[in-house]
Structure formats: C-alpha cells, structure tokens
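Reading a protein record of the kind used here takes only a little practice. The integers have meaning only within a learned vocabulary of local backbone shapes. With that in mind, consider the following protein and its fold in token form:
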Amino acid sequence: MKIDFVARSPYFEKVAPRPYPAKEYLPKWYKTMPSYNKPPGYSERFLSVIGGVSSTSPKMCTPMYDTFTTGYIIPLHTDLEVRIVNGDPTIHWRTKTIPVERHGGGYEINGIPGNTGLTVPDGYSSTVFKWINGWDFKTPKGYSCLVTDPYANENSPFKAIGAVIDTDKVSLSILPPFWVKEGFEGIVEKGTPMVQVIPFKRESWKAEYSSLAEGEYDALEDATFGSTIKNHYKRFVWTKKDFK
C-alpha cells in the first residue's frame, strides 16, 4: 500500500522536514532501557524466572514496540517559544508563515480563548491550538488515517488531540489540534514530532460475546505463553509491520 505526502506549497516542501516512518523515532528512555531487570537478591541484570515471573523488562514487549513504530511521524518545521501571558499559553516563532494558531481563530468559547468544550487532560492548559501542518496525506480508496499524539512522545509539552480522517476522500489540509502542558515556558525545537499518522482499512465490525470453560484459560496459558521464558509473542504470534 502507498500513502502520499504532498507539500501544501513549494515553500513547505523546502522548509518543512518530510514525514518519516515512526520506527525512526524511538524515545531515549526506551533505547537505553535494559532488556532484563535485576532478580531479587542479585546486583546484576540477567534473564531468570523466580516464582513464575520472568526478569524481562518492558524493552522486550513487542506490542509496545509496535505502538511506537506503526505509521509515520510529522515533525515540527520551526523552533517555537511558549510563554505564559496572563495565565494563558502563547506561542511565538520567527518564520514568515504561521505554524500554529488558536483553534477557532482565537474567538472566545465559553469565556475561554480557543477552548472547544473538550475535557482537558490533567496537567494541560484549556487553550486549544492547532498545527498549520505543511504536509497533506492521501491514502488509497477505502483507507483512513488515525492522527494521534505520538505514542513515543518524549518530553514534549504538546499533546495532540486524536482524530480519524478519511484521507482517501478529504481534499483540504489536516490541521491537528493540541494542548500545551500547563505552566510550561521554553523553546521547543524544530523536528519535535507533532503527530503520528497510522493508516488503516475501513471495515464494519460487530461485537459478539462468549465465555471460556472453567480452567480453559489456565491450560491455554500453560500451553503457550507460560511454556516459554522470553519472546513468546515475538516468536509465535507477532507479524512484522513495515512502514517505509
């Protein structure tokens, strides 16, 4: 499958770094995390099983790795400075084009500048901004994109508000909204991930419900995950996902 990233103008093609596979951006804490923890009573890290619990660390969790590396990252194309003015975050830059604006064009909603009525996550300002993203993206017929805060976001004061966009049909630019960490002031560097874009096929689903027989889950666990000490999911379950 192919996702097309199209610069909004020759200006953005020159100025805005290209979106890239999310696998190229892994947080430092993940890269430096050891693969094994220290077993109780030991001073060194190594693979062991004590009381049925393996000493493997989250570094060995393939589903978490998949979350970080699925899809594409759209990076910020200019340094930004965040300042608090009268208790409200303001954002400043040097480029001639506007990289950010308040959601709703700066009008007051419910008495709060740029507020959309959304429930604000703990630790973030209620003001909602939106990225003036320089890269549009198109998917084949029948495919949409989840546009979300980067799952591997590290030390960023911004938190994107997720959305699902039918990118096979939309014709205008996607300008993702975001919050700013409450009380943050400082400079955010060019290249900081703004959003993670994950394409997927649109399909209809219906939920059904059932129950395992008594003891069936324990037998299933011992026949699969419980019978190995490490990497069971990666060796026997995982399917590699490829984004280039």
In short: The two ends are 10 Å apart (CA to CA). The chain has five helices and 18 strands.
